[in-house]
Design brief:
five-stranded mixed sheet, 19 helices, Chitobiase, domain 2, binds zinc ion, about 40% helix
């Protein structure tokens, strides 16, 4: 029987409950205080039909999802069985970047619908970056009239296509996505990335940078030195205004404020930033970054929200533990380890192997399936227990169309989903591979063509050529040399 994620407990009882093929079996549902854990459920199928009991409405929903998968396995009958199931992590996330390349509302819905089948419950929507700002904001209209338009795209093709790239979501469209997700018990977590990755914001409002010089939204991938000025009070005013409007669209509990890859070159020499550092009695620009995170997290807290930021944001060590969750992608610095090892919440989104925009030759299906998010080097047992969830991001510098997006995410997101719900104690890769073959066929009905089986686990000799092919001309010679070295090992 093909299921993904695998339920925690499944006992076959022998025999079949039969009903007319093409019809739905009768299902009795009940919320019971006997099940304590949120989202947990049990399914009993016997001669009386199908019964689903759960701790809460979400549990009923997940029980019905498992039943939906069971019905994909059988026609006109279901085996007598008992399932008890509960999630390993309450945060089971996937992230889509619509800044580098834009995906339409219908395309986003297709991805959400597919992810929902595997019990994901958090959709982190990356909506602002150097290459485009993608949300309609009334109080700062230039964010879309200017910030959503880049003059061309040059993401490693070796040639600049000279075609303006102009997309954003209206508030109504985003609300439609939020509602579509809500129906599937998925919370949409918007990301407004600050203070770095803000070239599109600064193109719109150059007075918010340290230099005030005019720039354009970026046409290439990378990390850029122009970031929001940390010493200008207008910066926080703009951030709060944008957040306030975004919170009206996204009613969920979490708000993501980025915080990654914010070089301090400008802040180190900017009079406004340096004066602010002195005024606040801070040591340096990194601490100013920590202060900014605290201010924004406090603003969000007043609105009843929890803040998520990438782990560079806690690098200075002065971020308030209250109300902030760290999205752990790369930074195994002492500050990040201290954060987790002091029991502060962490969502594991490790670059290796959870970044779904990298080729299967680098992040194979098997490596994603077997990765244990509670076994990060340097994490204590308290650190491991502070992992509240996992997430797989897909960045889209090199993903230009929906077909490629689907292939990069699926079937790897099945592996992520299994860990997110089922944990690492019951892994069975041989069984999982059979489930994947089954669900890749189902995914076609969802409008998604997954990567073909031969790509899932590229043999070492194929890794380099696949990786180089994927990035085309964007690789530097040094990076290729590094890969060659790795491949030789
Ligand atoms: Zn400044």
């Amino acid at each position: 029987m093909y299921l993904c994620p695998e339920p925690k407990t499944l006992e076959l009882k022998g025999g079949y409950y039969r009903f007319e093929a093409g019809t739905q079996p009768a299902v009795k549902t009940k919320i019971t205080p006997l099940l304590a854990q949120k989202e947990s459920y049990r399914i009993i199928i016997d001669e009386n039909g199908v019964g689903i009991e759960a701790a809460d409405e979400a549990g009923i929903y997940y029980g019905k999802l498992t039943l939906k998968q069971l019905l994909m396995n059988y026609r006109g009958c279901l085996p007598y069985l008992y399932i008890y199931d509960e999630p390993e992590y309450y945060y089971r996330g996937f992230m889509i970047d619509s800044c580098r390349h834009f995906f339409t509302v219908d395309e986003i819905k297709k991805m959400v619908n597919a992810a929902a089948l595997f019990k994901f419950n958090k959709f982190h929507f990356h909506l602002s970056d150097d290459q485009g700002f993608r949300v309609e904001i009334d109080s700062y209209p230039k964010l879309t009239t200017i910030g959503s338009v880049r003059p061309s795209s040059d993401f490693g093709r070796g040639e600049n296509d000279k075609t303006p790239y102009a997309f954003y979501y209206t508030k109504q469209e985003l609300k439609e996505i939020v509602e579509y997700c809500r129906e599937r018990y998925i919370e949409v977590i918007p990301e407004f990335d600050i203070p770095g990755h803000t070239s599109a914001v600064l193109a719109s409002y150059p007075e918010l940078s340290c230099t005030g010089e005019s720039i354009e939204p970026k046409t290439t991938a990378g990390v850029f030195t122009d970031i929001l000025c940390g010493g200008n009070p207008e910066t926080l005013k703009m951030i709060y205004a944008v957040i306030d409007e975004m919170c009206e669209i996204f009613p969920g509990k979490y708000f993501h404020i980025g915080g990654d890859e914010a070089p301090k070159n400008r802040w180190n020499v900017c009079t406004k930033c340096q004066n602010k550092i002195k005024e606040l009695g801070l040591k340096n620009a990194e601490e100013l970054h920590g202060w900014l995170v605290n201010e924004v997290a406090f603003h969000l807290k007043k609105k009843g929200k929890k803040t998520i930021c990438w782990n560079e944001a806690v690098r200075a060590g002065n971020v308030d533990h209250d109300n902030v969750t760290v999205a752990w992608w790369l930074d195994s610095t002492k500050a990040s380890l201290d954060w987790a090892n002091s029991g502060n919440p962490v969502i594991v989104e490790s670059f290796t192997p959870y970044y779904a925009d990298y080729p299967y030759g680098m992040h194979s299906l098997k490596s994603v399936y077997l990765y244990n998010p509670r076994k990060i080097k340097g994490m204590t047992s308290l650190g491991a227990s502070s992992v509240v969830g996992i997430e797989s991001p897909v960045w889209t510098e090199y993903i230009r169309d929906f077909a490629t997006l689907g292939k990069m995410c699926f079937p790897r997101w099945l592996a992520v989903a299994d860990t997110a719900w089922n944990g690492n104690d019951n892994k069975n890769y041989a069984k999982f591979l059979k489930d994947v073959v089954f669900f890749c066929e189902i995914l076609r009905e969802y409008g998604i063509t997954a990567a073909s089986e031969k790509e899932w686990n590229i043999l070492p000799h194929g890794k380099l050529s696949q990786t180089v092919g994927f990035f085309r001309n964007s690789l530097t010679k040094d990076f290729v040399k590094q890969l060659l070295k790795k491949d030789e090992k």
